[in-house]
Design a protein that fits this description.
The protein is of the alpha/beta class. The chain is built from 14 helices and ten strands. The protein has a single domain, classed as Aldolase class I (TIM Barrel), CATH 3.20.20. Helix content is 43%, strand content 14%. Strands 1, 2, 3, 4, 5, 6, 7, 8, 9 and 10 form a ten-stranded parallel sheet that branches.
Length: 331
């Protein structure tokens, strides 16, 4: 462990010179460093972030465009078919409402707006409505992103032609842990969804959720898979146990453990956007400002899918206080 820690400066230099992240063996060694060495790991990730991303932060916002009634059984999700959580379920929101949400997100400083729907996929009239929304989101000067499940090549092409720039689809967790979290969808289905989006010429936003009972080695396994896929953006979500879900009794990650995950993500995927998303407020608490110094260069602002986020103004102040600037120039 000590030798791995001593090698951090040379590891950082090599990453910055080659643009290649650490290999799996090195990543596992770093993941197993004692907790009191987390700050050294963060410092290394921070140096890599500054080299490739500078001090510019992307602010992203999402809207739950279609809620609940999902046929999947994801153990962490309040919208799952197995969940008894008390949430509002509704069919696809109308286009005017969705565009208004995008307009509000822009006014609060977001540079990207993502439309998210529950369920395995959207199709038919719903897809046509969302294609129209994507175009209007672009006309507002926002980057248009969508998370619509597993789509076919022609459907992705239609969305791209209407203005979609980024397609989001998470792997959720490592392949070796996946069956403990999801049984209604194959892991390889997720890989095909990501590969189809890349083939359609879209940027890909793909990450997972941490704190769902996975080991440190499985965290590295997931991040290495994302590196192999060459995804553009990695949303790092932390589990918030929700009453009524299968993981309702799962313990929250400790803040330093969460920061270690962010740092590992940066060292494994040095050029990717590392976006700290769901669970940030609850898990990190007063240490939220540390996400940038652990290697992140983006945060999700506003509300999440079925849980509330914190006031956007507080996040804007957080970014300013950290000496960062918005990639959209809105701070």
């Amino acid at each position: 462990m000590k030798s791995c820690l001593a090698e951090l400066p040379s590891i950082v230099a090599r990453i910055c010179e080659t643009g290649q992240g650490v290999d799996q063996v090195t990543a596992l060694a770093l993941a197993q460093l004692p907790e009191h060495d987390t700050m050294w790991l963060m410092a290394a990730a921070d140096a890599v972030r500054q080299h490739f991303k500078g001090n510019r932060v992307r602010l992203c916002s999402i809207v739950n465009a279609k809620s609940g009634h999902c046929g999947e059984d994801c153990a962490f999700c309040a919208q799952s078919r197995d969940s008894t959580a008390d949430i509002e379920g509704y069919a696809l929101r109308d286009r005017e409402w969705l565009v208004e949400q995008a307009r509000a997100a822009r006014s609060r400083g977001a540079g990207e707006f993502s439309v998210v729907t529950s369920g395995r996929r959207v199709s038919g009239q719903d897809l046509e409505i969302l294609a129209d929304v994507v175009g209007q989101v672009r006309s507002l000067g926002l980057e248009a992103c969508a998370s619509l499940g597993i789509l076919e090549a022609d459907e992705l092409g239609r969305l791209r032609d209407r203005g979609l720039q980024v397609f989001h689809h998470n792997l959720e967790t490592a392949r070796s842990h996946y069956r403990n979290i999801v049984s209604t969808r194959e892991y390889d289905d997720n890989l095909r969804a990501v590969q189809a989006a890349k083939a359609a010429g879209l940027q890909v936003c793909c990450g997972g959720i941490f704190g769902v009972g996975e080991s440190a080695a499985q965290r590295v396994e997931l991040l290495e898979e994302l590196a192999a896929l060459q995804v553009d953006r990695v949303p790092v979500n932390f589990l918030i146990p929700i009453e009524g879900t299968r993981l309702a009794r799962q313990k929250l990650l400790q803040p330093m453990e969460a920061l270690r995950i962010i740092a590992l993500a940066r060292l494994i995927l040095p050029k990717a956007e590392i976006n700290v998303a769901g669970g940030r407020e609850r898990v990190l608490g007063q240490l939220q400002a540390c996400v940038f110094h652990a290697g992140a260069n983006a945060i999700l602002v506003g509300n999440y899918l079925t849980t509330k986020g914190r006031a956007v103004e507080d996040d804007l102040e957080l970014v300013r206080a950290c000496g960062m600037e918005s990639a959209g120039g809105l701070l």
